[in-house]
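Hi C.,

You asked whether I'd gotten around to modeling the 306-residue construct. I have! Everything is below, sequence then structure, no commentary in between.
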Amino acid sequence: MSSPERRRVVIAGGTGALGRALAQRLSTSCDVTVVGTRASGEGAWKADLLSIAEAEVALAGAQVVVFLARTSGPRARLFQGSADDVDLLLADSVSRAVRLTKPQRVVFFPCGEQDEREACLRASGVPLSVLSGGGDDPVSQLEQLVLAADVETRRLPAYKGGASEPAEWSGPSTVLSVQRFAPKAGWSAKQTARGYFEWLSSDVPGLSTVLGAEAIEVKFGGVSVLRLRHVPGQSDDDVDVLEVRDGALVSEGATGAFEFRLLREPKVLMTTLRGFVPAMPWLVYRGSQALMHARSMRRFGEFLAS
């Protein structure tokens, strides 16, 4: 008799202790891929799940997706925002990716009863199995949900596992800024992006913007400080991804992304500046441009709410 076909399982955010233990447990009966920014070695796929495009590639072909992605350590040398908002964006990226790749189901291990990522994942339309609490052995519980014939929800006492040790940032001098806003009624993501740069030129003295159909240039005192372009194939009514190409404020050869994303659940606007490497010396940047960016995002939120 032929052996049963091995199920293909992708663990999104599986580089932590729980994900590694689950991958090892499942490896005897499934083909397992662990996805994360720190993924390495056999059976691993290195990807930044803040990027929808990278999430789509990483989850392609999975029959079951296990979502464990959380912010457990620094993702940049400078972070502006809330770790909970980063976690929500990770869930939204996976939700959008599985809407395209169509696995049989997603397995989710929430944190607490009011974890808004659950509604975000359900918005994909893909069946969702949920392990609430986890009990004494969440690895076994997650394994059973992955291998189960049908979608299940299990509610157990809270998991008492220890928190992982926070890691120190050891990568390049990158910036990650994640901000949450109430969206402007009727505005698409691209309208919101254009609205931000139009508003920015009126909020900062000496700054002007040139808004083209596919590119945006920001000038200060007549000097080009930022040039961005809309990334083909990665933008729609809900998402507008701008590649930060160059300009006086960008380190030579570095490419970041500035994204405007409208979430379906919860209905919020999230902006993300990721992979940005400033041209200024780091300490000068921290005391000037970084503060200006934080101020601008706060004031843009006030503009959207007005």
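If it helps when you're writing up: The chain has eight helices and 15 strands.

Thanks,
B.
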